């Protein structure tokens, strides 16, 4: 029988469902930058970032950038 180390577990079920890239995009949303600037930083198109942002919003249950940033801070992503 093995004892599991839970210290590295995410803080919520929603965090588990976010991909690594979605967590990166979510963290970037807290900066004072446009989606175009985020896309440039991540070497992807603006449309890719828009799709990732929509996916993040849906997964964490928010509808605005400020709500997403507040959620990220609350869950230790930013």
Automatic annotation (TrEMBL):
UniProt record, GO biological process: regulation of DNA-templated transcription
The UniProt keywords, alphabetically, are: DNA-binding, Transcription, Transcription regulation
Record has Protease as a keyword: no
**Domain HTH luxR-type: residue ranges:** 11-76
- A molecular function (GO) term: DNA binding
Write the signal peptide boundaries.
none
Taxonomy, superkingdom: Bacteria
Which Gene3D superfamilies does the entry link to?
Winged helix-like DNA-binding domain superfamily/Winged helix DNA-binding domain
Q: Does the keyword DNA-binding apply?
A: yes
User: Which PANTHER family would you find in this protein's record?
Assistant: DNA-BINDING TRANSCRIPTIONAL ACTIVATOR DEVR_DOSR (PTHR44688:SF16)
Q: What is this protein called?
A: DNA-binding response regulator
Q: What is the lineage of its organism?
A: Bacteria, Bacillati, Actinomycetota, Actinomycetes, Micrococcales
């Amino acid at each position: 029988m093995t004892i599991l180390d839970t210290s590295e577990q995410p803080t919520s079920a929603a965090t588990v469902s976010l991909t690594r890239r979605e967590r990166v995009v979510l963290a970037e949303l807290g900066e004072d930058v446009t989606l175009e600037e985020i896309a440039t930083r991540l070497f992807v198109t603006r449309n890719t970032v828009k799709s990732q942002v929509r996916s993040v919003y849906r997964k964490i249950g928010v509808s605005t950038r400020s709500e997403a940033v507040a959620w990220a801070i609350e869950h230790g992503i930013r």
